[in-house]
Amino acid sequence: MWGGKPISQRVAVAAGRVLVNEHTFALIQSGGMKKGDVLTVAQIAGVMGAKRTPDIIPMCHPILMDGINLVKILTEKGFDVTYTAIVPDEAEMIQSELLKCADEKKIALVLTTGGTGFSPRDITPEAAMEVIQRPTPGISEAMRAESMKITPKGCLSRSVAGIRARTLIITLPGSQKASAENILAVIDPVAHGLDMLYSECSADCAK
Question: Which CATH class, in words, describes the domain spanning 68-197?
Answer without folding.
Answer: alpha beta
